[in-house]
Design a protein that fits this description.
With 278 residues, the chain is of the alpha/beta class. Helix content is 18%, strand content 22%. A hairpin with a 2-residue loop joins strand 11 and strand 12.
Amino acid sequence: MSMQTNTNQATEVASISRTGYSFNTVFLPTGTVEELQDLLDKKIAPNIEAYENSPLVIDVSKVNYLNNLDFKGLQAICRKYGLFLIGVSGAHTEERVKTLALMDIPVVNSTKFARIREENFKPRVITKTVEVQVPVHIKEPFEVKVPYEVKVSEPVMVLNRHVRGGEIIQAPDTSVIIFGNVSPMARIIASHNILVFGDMSGEVYAGSPKDKDTEGFKDAFIYIAGEFSPTLVAIAGQYQTAEDMDNNLALTTIYGRHGQVKVTLQGRSLNYTPLHNY
């Protein structure tokens, strides 16, 4: 009797993907073991069943000397309270990230700190002031050409396709309409409005300021027709991350669900309005 092997079965392979996991974050101004133990004793111990065996991240953005951080000691204290310390957050400069890496401490930066690090990588514009004595004597005749700028309204940018992860769609001085899905790690930036007739899983910036001296278009809005699962939402510089929206009880029927959603800016707060019942 011969044995036959079924070769038609699909073979699963290992893969890496970006996820939207949320972790409890502890803020420590000094980063000492004593400071952490005092906090856990007051906040975790009275309700330890609710936190048992859950992951934890420590925000060290205000810790001055990362070289003095006792990560193993902090992990040991967390285990006494049934918590797993998986890393630290708040490393908003490349120098601080390298310091933690040399100490074998994992960095679990939130979207907020990732954006701060990204801003630090951008080139800086350095201005220099030159003193000129007046009056300045100019030989006549002398023609001076005065430059001028004529602004022309840009048409709305329309994309009839899906936006892949890693893509950055920029629409200065106009709005964007996308007939397709926006994948995780994709970024949509527009000076005015953004409308997505599909699922939103990336970052979306409406009313984006044109430079550091402008506040952006505060009357801009964001419309999502499909699943509302962005990793970041921003209008005129005011933003919320996936962690913020996932922990907002008012968004439990909106975030991560299918339905029409309109996002506007009221003062300094983002307002989310479901439209599927309209």
